[in-house]
Amino acid sequence: MSLYYEPIVYTIPPEEEGMLLKTILQKRMNISRKLISKLKLTEQGIMLNGTRVYISVKVKSGDQVEIRMERERSDDILPEPIPFEILFEDEHLLVVNKAAGMIVHPTHGHYTGTLANGVVHYWQAKGELFRFRPVHRLDQETTGVLVVAKNPYVHQHISEQMIAGTVDKRYTALVHGRPELQEGKVDGPIDRSPDNPHLRMVTPDGYPALTLYKLEEVWNGGSRIGLKLESGRTHQIRVHMTYIGCPLIGDKMYRITPDDAAQRERYDQLDARMPRQALHASELSLEHPVTGGRLTFYAPLPEDMAEMQELLRAQYFSE
């Protein structure tokens, strides 16, 4: 196995002739200063037409700029044969459909049994060497599309897309009740609860958070909602749905106790049938950082949410 990942290549167009290689790396290939500094320390990190050069040289039309990153290991993650579903994989990206109950990355008290443990084992079994770099997170009980970068260049580029708002993340939720509007937005700043550091709440002094929603199906006991995140705060969808009076079915952390006895009984019945919050990352779209082009990944509704949806359809009259 090569000590380097496959090179990322950029061909100099005529209009960029005479520019400094440093400018090409930063402004055309969008490589961070931190990564450039790291590449300069390796034998084949930055190459021009197959030759190692200083980044102060000027480039010509047709020149081939290559960057090669050294392969890295996840030595701090114990490989474990944990099954997971792959939606897409190439030399640069791994996209999975995360299962409910699975923590993404080892944390204090959870060093094993995570998605990272399973992915590292999977790569090791294939004789491949990558460092586990998730570009975003999903709550332990939230299912769906999750993207893992295989090198720092890809991680940087997707992270920048997320900051710029060009990564389109869509979710499906089953909630108690229904929003007042067929579609709308929840614009509510979020911060930690002063009473419990593990909880989040909408507060005027919080961090900006915007969630777009669209009502997809309605029953007397609840509704199915499609959501799009315009920001990425912790527990954002769960907090925002509770804020507008439509907590996620099965969400024990952000549930509401209705004053009406019949409604309270209906909430309890549905929550008892759903072992987790009914939230699923159903779709994610991004620009491929290396090969170009927009990619969209879909994850079907998981079995427990599909069963809850059928229960609602069967026991509660649709509107």
UniProtKB/TrEMBL annotation:
<dbReference type="GO" id="GO:0000455">
    <property type="term" value="P:enzyme-directed rRNA pseudouridine synthesis"/>
</dbReference>
<dbReference type="GO" id="GO:0003723">
    <property type="term" value="F:RNA binding"/>
</dbReference>
<dbReference type="GO" id="GO:0140098">
    <property type="term" value="F:catalytic activity, acting on RNA"/>
</dbReference>
<comment type="similarity">
    <text>Belongs to the pseudouridine synthase RluA family.</text>
</comment>
<dbReference type="InterPro" id="IPR020103">
    <property type="entry name" value="PsdUridine_synth_cat_dom_sf"/>
</dbReference>
<dbReference type="InterPro" id="IPR050188">
    <property type="entry name" value="RluA_PseudoU_synthase"/>
</dbReference>
<dbReference type="InterPro" id="IPR006145">
    <property type="entry name" value="PsdUridine_synth_RsuA/RluA"/>
</dbReference>
<dbReference type="GO" id="GO:0009982">
    <property type="term" value="F:pseudouridine synthase activity"/>
</dbReference>
<dbReference type="InterPro" id="IPR006225">
    <property type="entry name" value="PsdUridine_synth_RluC/D"/>
</dbReference>
<dbReference type="InterPro" id="IPR006224">
    <property type="entry name" value="PsdUridine_synth_RluA-like_CS"/>
</dbReference>
<keyword id="KW-0694">RNA-binding</keyword>
<feature type="active site">
    <location>
        <position position="139"/>
    </location>
</feature>
<feature type="domain" description="Pseudouridine synthase RsuA/RluA-like">
    <location>
        <begin position="92"/>
        <end position="241"/>
    </location>
</feature>
<dbReference type="Pfam" id="PF00849">
    <property type="entry name" value="PseudoU_synth_2"/>
</dbReference>
<keyword id="KW-0413">Isomerase</keyword>
<comment type="function">
    <text>Responsible for synthesis of pseudouridine from uracil.</text>
</comment>
<protein>
    <recommendedName>
        <fullName>Pseudouridine synthase</fullName>
        <ecNumber>5.4.99.-</ecNumber>
    </recommendedName>
</protein>
